[in-house]
């Protein structure tokens, strides 16, 4: 596949060139891997595709520069306000890439102590961000095209190693002249990235980019695998952990047994597709049962959607929050709800033919004239 060959050429410094077609352009665009095409594009690629790639590549460069500026503004305020924090995932991983713009980030993930959660959020509000989605481990903040997620835990579920990461700052050390914390051991940093990948792999689907991250991490760090394998046993997926580790180590060897899996990852966008997520939801349910769960969601879902339920006194408002939930999806978002129900029926009938990603960054690409 052309997208894979372009990525390999850049990562392995092969300097090979490939003719890019429409399908490869679409896959790379949806998976935020397009800069790899630009750096490996053969001159015989059609003029139209060349122009599209050039335009989108310029937007990646612009976004990468803007993100650095935004990041520096934010962490300066975190330091000035005495908030201890740790920058997670993309911002640390991109140093392993030949160029920083190759490691696109949908958002900046920041770990803070729960006691500093409001204070850090206030900084983002003052920077012009508005609150986005709240989950059981983070709060999103949005200022298009940027997204910053404040985390107060790393891995919440025990089955993905959550008990090991229960007190994340205890695994970290402070950087001199800063309030930023980094992992003391490279093994623990790797395990966090790995368990995060494992969660998406088992639940929602995962794209190829996260495997590139870990391939480069392993390539650039000498790790104690005996220690790592002990921690794998704290998850519920030891065999999968071993399989995926071997796959990551052999990512660009082009072994025949991995080709089908690689092809699937490249088609699954950055974090899997909506189809995968809904397919998982519908795995053991009829469409009607799935709909009932959407209309009457459980308390865990309601806690994620309405942060006031994190406090037990908030349960007094639960009936009113359910009314709000029904009004929102039954009136305000009625067209969306109907569309999603029809989509669920198609999945059950195996009629799905694919969707187009609409991430905020793709909107940014279009606004840049890409």
Automatic annotation (TrEMBL):
The chain crosses the membrane at residues 313-332. It comes from Anaeroplasma bactoclasticum. The keyword Transferase applies. Pfam families: NTP_transf_5. Keywords: Membrane, Transferase, Transmembrane, Transmembrane helix. GO terms for molecular function: transferase activity. InterPro entries: NTP_transf_5. This is Putative nucleotidyltransferase-like protein. It comes from the Bacteria.
